[in-house]
Amino acid sequence: MFFKKQIHWYKIFNNIEAANAFVKIGSVNTLNVGNKKICIAHTSKGFFAINDKCPHNGASLSNGYCTKENTIVCPVHRYHFDLITGRAKSGGGDCAQTYPIEIRTDGIYLGLNETIWKLF
Ligand code: FES
Fold first, then answer.
1. In this structure, are residues 77 and 90 in contact, taking their beta carbons and an 8 Å threshold?
2. What domains lie within the chain, and their CATH numbers?
3. pTM surpassing 0.85?
4. Does the beta carbon of 90 lie inside 6 Å of ligand 1?
5. Is the CB of 56 under 6 A from ligand 1?
């Protein structure tokens, strides 16, 4: 196998206070991580990361808002996307890419799948 998928973890905040200051509970914000624009949502269930580009028609999800049902609402056509699975709650096949977030003792990390080339 020449190509291998692995998760690359990016430290996005030094601590929980920095994360709370960047995205208050009940709100969303954007971060550029790797070569991706990521929407960070903060709900009562924690921090979530989802691709900022809406899979329906490309709007910026970070211009939307999150709900108590743990979804993010696109600002254009108001589709709701589950922050854990990325699936549209309104049916249809639209699904946004979500990313894992880990709170560690030395900071908060976001994982991106990357494909690396490896000869052996
Ligand atoms: S562009 Fe997001 S729901 Fe249509």
1. no
2. 14-106 (2.102.10.10)
3. yes
4. no
5. yes
